[in-house]
Amino acid sequence: MLMNIEDLDASHLKEACGIFEAAFRKERCDAPILDETFGTAARVMPKLLSCIEKTPGVAVTENGKLVAYMTGIQIEKFLSPHRGVYSPEWAHGSIAGNDFELYRLMYRELGQRWVENGCITHAINFMNHSVDAWNAFVWNGFGGICFDAIRPVEKLNAEIPGGIRISQLEEKDIAFLLPLVDASARHLAASPSFVPYTEPETLDALSEALKTPGNHAWMAWSGSEPVGYMKVTPAGNGAAWIVNGERKFAINGAYVNPEFRGRGIARHLLSSIMDWGLEQGFARCSVDFEMTNPEACGFWLKHFRPVCRSMVRRLDEDILKTI
Q1: Predicted local confidence at residue 238, as pLDDT
Q2: Which residues in the chain come in under a pLDDT of 70?
């Protein structure tokens, strides 16, 4: 059988959407809480069309049938001072059964085009079941950066740790929250995560964010000392697209002071949020977190099911002088 690689264009979109639908159904078998309406051609086709109108894409055909496709979103100053490209979980796919070779083939072709367009940061998000495709990008110099995970909003039995109380944040408590948010950012800036923290959070910015409709926070206290927090937002910034849906919110921050860890405080904060979510009529909750953060992985993977994993490769900027 003869395989051919060509430009991804509007003539491929129907088949590409079919590939995405099949992948989404497979992921939803492991995570049935995913909103099935986000796995339809009607939802994803406009997104794919928008991509290929702005950024190069490739299609692999076999005897005239589409077997794999890949495109992305061009972003200025993407994780660096330079332009980059992000390929979400809906912007690529394969049905041929040899994902490893197909993805290596597509990236070899598409990566060249991206670099020629000045894009030297390349990121891609895979559905969690796409192990062979993930391995293809490991072989292409990519490293994992983030999990996207989801869970149903339901009761989470958690005993209140001795000497600890949990309360939903009030405006008067925002000043107490600020040091915890700062500590969380500094934790991520340290080894092994090394997430840059160049502009420390300010009280005004934190206050404004928490006053935005749909944003809420819960705090853990030991006496009058704030020792942990967890906060939510209607939708997580930068999170996978497939975790969205009706009656959904996202957790977008959490931290417990090191000396208070191991006592179930984070679990009780999450339990309080689940109780609130049930009262509000929510059905699903998502979270995204760094793979390089051991504490985050140890906690969130106990309570949420991962549905997507993202990877990144940052090229030496001198490559722009070479091409």
Answers
A1: 65
A2: 1, 236-238
Q: Are strands 216-222 and 164-168 parallel, antiparallel or unpaired?
A: antiparallel
- Cα distance between residue 4 and residue 58, in whole Å: 10
Which residue reads 């994902």 in tokens? 99
pLDDT one-digit tens code per residue, 199-232: 999 999 999 999 999 999 999 999 999 999 999 9
Q: Which of 164, 179, 194 is nearest to 261 (CA)?
A: 164
Whether 231 and 216 have beta carbons less than 8 Å apart is answered as yes
Burial of 237 (0-12, 13-18, 19+ CB in 10 A): exposed
Instruction: Please state whether the peptide bond connecting residue 213 to the residue before it is cis, i.e. omega within 30 degrees of 0.
Output: no
Q: What pLDDT does residue 108 have?
A: 96
| Local structure of 38: helix, strand or coil | helix
Which amino acid type is present at position 213? P
Alpha-helical segments (H) within the chain: 13-30, 41-54, 99-116, 131-139, 174-189, 203-211, 265-280, 294-303, 319-322
User: Which pLDDT score, from 0 to 100, does residue 79 have?
Assistant: 85
Distance (Å, whole) CA 272 – CA 168: 9
Q: Quick check: 315 and 107 in contact, CB under 8 A?
A: no
User: Rg for the chain (alpha carbons), in Å?
Assistant: 21
CA distance 31 to 24: 10
User: Cα angle vertex 119, ends 320, 125, to 5°?
Assistant: 140
C-alpha distances in Å from residue 315, one per residue of 141, 235, 257: 9, 30, 36
Whole-number Å distance between alpha carbons of 305 and 175: 33
CA distances from 150 to 176, 216, 299 (A): 29, 18, 13
What's the CA angle centered on 251, arms 295 and 281, to 5 degrees?
Answer: 140
Question: Does the CA dihedral 177-267-125-11 come out positive or negative?
Answer: negative
DSSP 195: -
